[in-house]
Design goal:
alpha+beta; Chitobiase, domain 2; Jelly Rolls; 5 domains; seven-stranded mixed beta sheet; 41 strands; flat
């Protein structure tokens, strides 16, 4: 991909930002104070005390324990006394006050004079919390005012338990009395003030998206009134890029006709189609500009990212340049000379999907190899995220080989040191860690380290195919036994280390692409089948002939989800009105089923389980099929069912639905429709796709959303997508009928018996000299 950019304005000096950080870190921090939960918070320090000139209004947000990187309660134990809270601060904000509220409970057996919790912020001791005898054994709240000068863009709050239950020199660090639990109710309250960033494209994607902000991304798009669908498609390309950046945070997009009063926003403009309230210089070609938001107070620091062009083609060029070449942009405005989006992607080559044509090393699955290393006797799990195409079918094998190599601090004898290998919280293999070899204590450390005699091991673990979904997590849990033979025999030291080698691999090369559809579970977790082509070159989005702002916002949010699932902008998606759906009949279709698009669904409605039109809802019920929702199309009975009944009703409440079915325009193509009683209900359906608080409730071919109530049904006739070898198709067909398998086994046995009988007869004739 090539992007040529002409710098329109001279780059502003980014030393202003550096000056903010230097001033903030050079000031002498004051110690933090620990208070009870009834003490009022201290007043925020003045801008002069922080060394950073805040320019915008103050904002307060509360981070929970889970938002600071902990999956549940934080357990501090004698052999593992440390815990960490991770806190990010946006580039355009400076911390003016911070209060940590610790909800915790500790053992009644601890000696108060020898036990406490030490709190550190970015390596600086900020508080010591005594573990009193009177409060032991019950949940207690402690609050700590943290010095805002200690905060940077990425921060770590470390909690260390120093605890003793006896004054005996032979105290056992594994004793059950040594415990403190940090409750999930623990929170950090941050008060921040805005910092005015320069109008500099070199800061992109900030301030519109900041990686240190773990909140969901909410970003408005400002489009001209009655913008053509080509403009909506261009906005969708940009939305998919921001969705890719937001990733696990999720992204929500809205559509406005004027700049928002207190928010960053993306603006698309052409001559004669400039949003109201925005004044732009003459547009002389495709241009990307960052500027202050005129609808916000000057001191707020809110920005607009303006994409402009003299026509739709130039507007698209500006969008492509942004998503492909933003790393080369600088200054407040860049004029684009040309953009080459590159060739059409190949099927299943999404950057976030692991390839299945070769073994995949873990080095390709993690951002940093340091993620594969842990320390301590009971270290946290090593987690490796793994996305694969959801239509994998293992007809020739029942598992995916996981070739795992690992290193660890070896025990001196066989004990309970273990490595547990799991996928998606399901145990696959538990391996006992072998002791070091004789004489390995006296080894020589060689440089480079690749030639060292480190203690390690390897194992091939078969991962059952039925455990593999589209979005997976491989989990490796080390447990290092302390090897203590008795009291005073040895002193446990925190020297245990373990690591998974980055050259460990998992191999899906024996799988093929073949699955039964429709299956909304695939769409809800990976966007399949639309994400089969990462640039969405096989996808068209069908919208009403006259879409409103809610319809347009649904398109942008959907494309944001696609970018998060694939890791690539939707460069080649098509957006068409319902009246022109025949022009994209050869593609997979995403239908926004309101207005005239709802009429299109009604036209196709003979085979659909649900229709919503003009306030009426028609629900066609069929006998529920019994097959489990896996990627095994041989499971269950696929014979079509006849309708058991139909109900037509006028609903008084809100209703939204996801409907999956085979395209009536071309066999083998898929349609997923978002239908609702009104366009305003589309957002509730999209919220279901972004709800990570529980396993996805979306499956089958129909999902109904009625407020907090979500119901999924399996009603329609299945069809199959993908390809398998002809002999595999015979096996799939025969496996649906056990009687055929029995007959085939009998016939095969008879054939083998006849062949052996004939061969023995010929041998006997030769021995007797016969012909």
């Amino acid at each position: 991909m090539r992007v040529f950019i002409h710098v329109g304005l001279t780059a502003l000096c980014t030393s202003l930002l550096l000056g903010f950080n230097i001033a903030a870190t050079s000031a002498a921090p004051s110690p933090a104070t620990a208070t009870s939960d009834t003490q009022p918070p201290s007043s925020a320090p003045s801008p002069q005390s922080t060394g950073t000139p805040p320019t915008g209004p103050t904002r307060t947000r509360v981070l929970t324990l889970s938002q600071m990187g902990n999956f549940g309660p934080m357990a501090l134990r004698g052999e593992s006394p440390n815990g960490t809270l991770n806190v990010g601060v946006r580039t355009d904000e400076v911390v003016t006050s911070a209060r940590l509220k610790l909800d915790m409970a500790w053992s009644p057996s601890l000696i108060p004079s020898l036990s406490h919790i030490k709190v550190q912020l970015n390596g600086v001791d900020v508080a010591t919390l005594p573990l009193d005898k009177d409060d032991a054994g019950k949940e207690v709240t402690r609050t700590i005012d943290l010095d805002p000068l200690l905060f940077t863009d990425y921060n770590q709050i470390k909690l260390q338990m120093v605890a003793h239950y006896t004054t005996d020199a032979c105290e056992d660090p594994y004793h059950s009395s040594l415990w403190t639990d940090i409750s999930p109710a623990t929170s950090l309250t941050l008060t921040t003030s805005g910092v005015a960033l320069p109008d500099n494209l070199a800061l992109l994607p900030r301030p519109f998206f900041d990686r240190q902000d773990n909140r969901p991304l909410s970003l408005p798009f400002v489009l001209p009134p009655n913008a053509p669908l080509s403009t909506l498609r261009t906005a969708g390309v940009v939305a998919s890029w921001f969705g890719e950046l937001a990733d696990y945070r999720h992204a929500h997009f809205s559509v406005l006709n004027t700049p928002p009063a207190d928010s960053q926003a993306i603006v698309l403009a052409m001559p004669g189609a400039v949003p109201q309230g925005l004044s732009l210089p003459q547009i002389n070609g495709p241009t990307v500009t960052v500027m202050a938001n005129p609808a916000s107070p000057p001191q707020s620091g809110r920005k607009l990212l303006v994409l402009a062009g003299r026509d739709e083609k130039e507007l698209q060029t500006a969008a492509f340049a942004l998503v492909l070449g933003h790393a080369g942009m600088t200054g407040s405005s860049d004029q684009i000379r040309s953009v080459d989006p590159g060739p059409v992607r190949r099927p299943y080559d999404a950057p976030k999907w692991a390839p299945i044509d070769r073994p995949v090393p873990f080095l390709d699955l993690v951002d940093d190899p340091q993620q594969l290393q842990v320390s301590g006797f009971n270290p946290p799990q090593i987690r490796v995220n793994l996305r694969v195409p959801p239509d994998l079918y293992a007809w020739a094998r029942q598992s995916a080989p996981l070739d795992v190599h690992y290193r660890y601090t070896a025990p001196s004898t066989y004990n309970d040191s273990m490595l547990n290998v799991s996928i998606n919280d399901q145990l696959v293999r538990s391996e006992r860690l072998r002791p070091s070899h004789d004489g390995s204590e006296g080894f020589r450390l060689n440089v480079p380290l690749l030639t060292s005699t480190a203690v390690g091991a390897s194992d091939e673990v078969p991962v059952p195919a039925f455990r593999v979904a589209d979005n997976n997590q491989l989990q490796f849990q080390f447990h290092m036994d302390a090897q203590k033979a008795g009291l005073c025999a040895s002193t446990a030291a925190d020297v245990a280390r373990a690591a998974i080698d980055p050259n460990s691999t998992i191999d899906f090369s024996g799988f093929v692409h073949f699955t039964a559809m429709p299956n909304l579970a695939y769409f809800a977790t990976s966007g399949f089948p639309f994400t089969r082509m990462a640039d969405l070159s096989d996808t068209a989005i069908v919208v009403p002939d006259a879409p409103d702002a809610a319809d347009e916002a649904a398109v942008l949010t959907l494309l944001g989800n696609m970018g998060a699932w694939t890791g690539l902008p939707a460069l080649r998606v098509e957006v068409v009105p319902a009246k022109d759906v025949a022009s994209v009949g050869g593609r997979d279709l995403l239908v926004i089923g309101t207005g005239s698009a709802a009429d299109l669904l009604a036209k196709w409605g003979k085979g659909l389980p649900l229709l919503i039109s003009q306030g009426d809802t028609a629900l066609r019920m069929r006998e529920q099929r019994k097959e489990s929702w896996t990627n095994w199309p041989a499971d269950g009975d696929h014979r079509p069912r006849t309708p058991d009944g139909e109900t037509v009703m006028s609903t008084s409440g809100p209703l939204g639905a996801l409907i999956g079915f085979e395209s009536p325009l071309e066999a083998g193509r898929s349609v997923v429709a978002l239908a609702a009683t009104s366009s305003g209900q589309l957002a509730s359906v999209l919220d279901v796709l972004q709800d990570d608080r529980r396993p996805s409730p979306v499956y089958g071919d129909l999902t109904l959303v009625r407020g907090a109530q979500i119901d999924s049904l399996l009603l329609g006739k299945p069809y199959f997508v993908g390809e398998v070898p002809w002999y595999a198709r015979i096996w799939i067909f025969v496996s649906n009928y056990p009687s055929l398998l029995a007959i085939a086994g009998i016939l095969a046995g008879l054939a083998v018996a006849l062949a052996v009988f004939w061969a023995l007869s010929r041998l006997a004739v030769r021995r007797t000299g016969g012909s």
